[in-house]
Amino acid sequence: MQIHFYDDPGETPKSREDVRLNDLGLYMYPDGRRVAVGFNLTPFLEKPSIEVRVVNERGEPAGWLNVIETIETNFSLTMHLRDKEPTSHYEVTATVYYQTPETDRMDVHQVVKQFDATQPGEQ
Fold first, then answer.
1. Whose CA, among 38, 77, 93, 97, lies 20 to 30 Å from 27?
2. Where residue 69 sits, what CATH number does that domain have?
């Protein structure tokens, strides 16, 4: 008797080089200073890390977070925009990477999206 853990071949866990951020969802809160960032990763064999950086339209840092070795493929986190002089438009860059104390950082995938802080809701 064969045991199948995955019915869909697309759901088979991937090696480091094949891990991708399938979707990066953004939800702007009505206060214009918080944004929920949703992550949807391919299934993985080794736990990836994700770095997220947000810059305002002047290119100034507005937020940063780092997820270290996630165990989930689908989750969301709320970021607070911390630039001193807020702007309307922002750019978010999410980078999936692997790094251990013994190895250099290896970036495997990156997604860049823009959002409008004056427009509450999904973007």
1. 97
2. 2.60.40.10
- Which residues neighbour 77 within 8 Å (Cβ) at sequence distance 6 or greater? 36, 37, 39, 65, 67
- Contact indicator for 57, 92 with CB cutoff of 8 Å: no
Give residue-wise pLDDT tens across range 15-57: 999 999 999 999 999 999 999 999 999 999 999 999 999 999 9
Q: How many CB atoms lie within 10 A of CB 108?
A: 18
In a domain, 52, yes or no: yes
Per-residue pLDDT reduced to its tens digit, 69-118? 999 999 999 999 999 999 999 999 999 999 988 889 999 999 999 999 99
Q: Which of 19, 67, 21 has the alpha carbon at shortest distance from 46?
A: 19
Q: How many residues does the chain have?
A: 123
